[in-house]
Amino acid sequence: VQLQASGGGAVQAGGSLRLSCTAPTSTFSIGAIGWYRQAPGKQRELIAGISIDGTPIYVDSVKGRFTVSRDNAKNTVYLQMNSLQPEDTAVYYCNVDPGTGKFYRDPSWHAYWGQGTQVTVSS
After folding, report:
1. Is the dihedral of CA 67, 78, 117, 18 positive or negative?
2. Three-state DSSP class for residue 5
3. Contact, 46 vs 35, CB < 8 A?
4. 97/113 Cα distance (integer angstroms)
5. What whole-number distance in Å separates Cα of residue 88 and Cα of residue 37?
6. 46 close to 103: Cβ distance less than 8 angstroms
7. In a structure prediction context, what are the per-residue pLDDT tens digits for the chain, which is 123 residues long?
């Protein structure tokens, strides 16, 4: 199962974007989904995730600014990003291990990646 992220764009600092992660099948059957990002010159990192029952997790750098949610009826997981800063500039991805229904803190544990979406925040 490859998940596709979309909704990126260019915004000024303080602005907002909502990213979508679309699955080809029911997200309810897929399991927990993680959001990752890779900034220029940096390694890909987990920034947020959501369990099958809707429980979110966030890393400290996005806590209070980003909100993850899921709409299983639409096979979509969202990442609402507010108060964006230049350091949020990155390519954003979503992912899940279809075999386990989990996402991993270490992105290297995921064997496949869908196409990400570029987010650019200018100061």
Report:
1. negative
2. strand
3. yes
4. 10
5. 9
6. yes
7. 688 999 999 999 999 999 999 987 766 677 899 999 999 999 999 999 999 889 999 999 999 999 999 998 888 999 999 999 999 999 999 999 988 999 999 999 999 999 899 999 999
